[in-house]
Amino acid sequence: MTTKMAINAKDIFRNQHRLIRFIEQSIRLCSNQSLKAAQKQQQQQKSNADFEITTSINTQYTNAPEPIKHDKDLGDLFKASQLQVRLASPQQLQPKPDNDEELGFGKLFTDHMLKIYYHKSLGGWQKPEITPLENLVMHPAAKVLHYAVELFEGMKAYRGVDGKIRIFRPDMNMSRMNLAAQRSGLPTFEGKEFIKCLSRLLTIDSEWVPHTDTASLYIRPTLIGIDPTLGVASSDSALLYSILSPVGSYFKTGSNGAVSLLADPSYVRAWPGGVGNRKMGSNYAPTINVQKEAAAKGLQQVLWLYGEDHQLTEVGTMNIFMFYVNDQGEQELITPPLNGLILPGITRDSILAMSRQWGKFKVREDLITMPMVCDLLNQGRLLELFGAGTACVVSPINRINYLGQDLYIPTMEQEKPVHELIRETLTDIQYGKVDHPWGVVID
Amino acid sequence: MSFLLRRNSSQLRLLMAAGNKITRPALSTTASSCYSSSSSSSSSPSSDNNNVNAVSPGASRQRKSTPSVPDADIKKSVFISQSHDIFTNLALEDWLYKNFDFSHHHVLLLWANDPCVVIGRHQNPFTEANVSKLMERGITLARRNSGGGAVYHDRGNLNCTFFTPRERYDRKYNLNIVTRALFREWAIKAEINERDDIVILNKKISGTAAKLGHPNSYHHCTLLATANKLHLGESLIKEPANYISRATASVPSSIRNLVDVNRNVTVAQLLSAVGYEYLRTTATALEDGGSVQTMQQRGFQLINPTEKWFPGIEELRANYSSWDWVIGKTPKFTVEKDLELKEDQHGMKIKLSVDVEAGLMKDICIQLPQSEQRVPVVTPLQGKAYNEQNLNGIVAALKLVSTSNVKQAMNGSV
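Predict the joint structure of the above. Result:
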């Protein structure tokens, strides 16, 4: 980093995170290693300067989520200003682990949780409360236990390079959650108020996010129906709660970070007219055994296929993207469209919006089938295949076991892989290295 | 450019202030701790401030422009360290002091250590404790970054560090939090004396030290709950030799445990009581806000001071545990020991004098009791670390020298 400051204001604005880091390094007398690491990182960033990360997002490339329409007889909505807090006492605190190896995914939880009850008989949504993490008590006839009247969300909080905590596009998660609530006969709510309550929970448990700039906290908001009656009907009582979990990496990967998949057409995850496009717990229970089968064969995830033509729908719990050379000889990024079988992922939406804005290659939402994949592979036109989700941003795929055959995908052999670029751009926004409206500061 | 800086953590204010002279006089880091209190506050004041010495006319203007934060916006946390290692905890305290942004977030750090002796920044460990005996007993010796006297820590002693930005440093507020907590929990009446010790019936239960830097500051104090008084007394007895030193000397005081005053006191309960009192009091005024105020704070957090959670802490810990810091930072001093050389029927008394600088023996001389002459001694032990073993080595070597040789050397150098 040269000490000559760029006179051009635009340059300063674009490089502000580097400047601020440099200044902070000279103040942070802690470690010389981090200074060297920062310098190395800057050299890497200079070489990736092809794609610009702009701080504005062009609205023609992204859809703001539609505002939710509440039921007429929903009752009162909750507000963040009504939040009551019961802090955990020192004896109730969980000790923090020494290192990442003990962490895994979702095995350890933080000290506090957010709970908001809904009771139709009491007028609607009750006052939100933050309490120490404790067990839930419910009647054995509670609907969630019998008919899986449950839906959930997955988001992450990141500690940015400036020490502030950010969440990524929370409004999208809230709108998705409300749509799923409508489908399950559960009460809808104001997403903005829930985000404010969540922000308070995150500030209280902020020390669960390490002070490094590569750590995150996984947020799991859940909505369950707790009406203690066995009738298959709308739940009159519900509980909206959220727990937080410090995470290491999502799953163990094979060689150099890529995953291998089992593609068996006899297992179907979602079907037209079903709820494959909603994040409900009932979609996931049937997949556990199939995952076990994949693991037994030495494969890491399941590639979900549908239909006679073996359409690729999702990878494990992520959306799928393919980067290839199309019939016109151009590079193209393709992902299945939201036709009711696909979960509308937020990472998926972000990738589509970003790539369209970059304009460096064609972007298309269309069906991908296994015959198409085999064909492209044989012709050497298949470049990359990767999954995209909150847990790991992008997950490159290097092998698919399909109808007894092993297909080797050259995802990791590309020189300047698109999936790496996407991962870097998204993490730059998430960790506040670039100021962007998608990274919402909550601290 | 300044617009960008102001946007982020208050530590960036340092850059604006860089090149500004600190106009106020020596930040009195009067330190007193449970077994002692400092003799003077002027001992090396400048080394307790982190900073910078050039002059700039804009200094006072910039300091005034720092916006003051209203009380309601300041949230408090109580951090409880999971570690009981003195070096790790000192490193954690240092990490927070150097890296955390306290402008809207005040922190109370509570920690307890396995048995150790902690001396002040400018003290001489050899005058404070018997260093070789400590090593034998497995009691760690550490040097902290704030001034003041020597203390003995064990699991029955709770350390409290109050972190705030420099402009909101308030020692009386912090000590009052402690006395209020003691009263609210156990109806123990404690007083704060003029040296900022907390005393109960004239015996100390707490000692204080502080570090005022820019932009952060901290004030830490000890609290004797159930400490082992016998070990405490034994650990703070110095080695039997004559030391001439200008380092900060500890002033011994008589101490008492809280458990002597009320049988129900335990460190766990004390931790909880002080923590809740801290959370329920408003940020700058000593007003009790009750459970309503507590509800608005950030609460208790367990802190695991490892590299994973706090990058850079390992380096700080390595520094605190290094010989160069613990012994090497000792100010220059001289040790004198009386020896008797016997030959035939003559006994000859000489005085051995060793000048120690940065923990290494620089000049070794002998001196006749009547004369002022000092005769240098040549020995391979010169330049080696000062410790009991090496000193005894010199003594043993001298005892082999005959008195006639000594007399010759003395006369020869007239």
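Chain A is about 25% helix and 25% strand.
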